[in-house]
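Incident review: delayed structure delivery

Summary: a single-chain prediction request sat in the queue longer than the usual turnaround. Root cause was a stuck worker, restarted by the on-call engineer. No data loss occurred. The affected request and its eventual output are reproduced below so the record is complete for anyone auditing the incident later.

Affected input:
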Amino acid sequence: MSDEERKIIISRVSEYRQDESGEFHRVPVSPLNRWLTYAILIPVVILMAILGIFFFAAFLALLAVAVVVVGIRFWWLRRKYENAMQQSGEANRQSEADHTVIIEDAQIIEETDVHRTEQKKH
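Output delivered after worker restart:
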């Protein structure tokens, strides 16, 4: 690539040109190009703003749903815990009144008969 091609690329990127005296001057942009750029950028910016609002609203809705689900889950667990505590309180009152202990999940391993009178003789 020659030096002239590099200068053209650099001048297009920076929009500045160097004249014979060594000073840099801004390349004039035509008003038509400027208005065309604005005409293209304004709808793009508006579209990006609308998309940003849409995605923010969708994120906010998902966050609200997640908060509601977690809240319902905590409410359900608290209700279940309170019911268990209430039932255990009623069971304690019944056992104190009857003096019997009810074990629901017991398993009988071996059943034997104990005769108290035989044990006293020995």
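Verification: Residues 31-98 form the longest helix (68 residues).
Action items: add queue-age alerting; document worker restart procedure.
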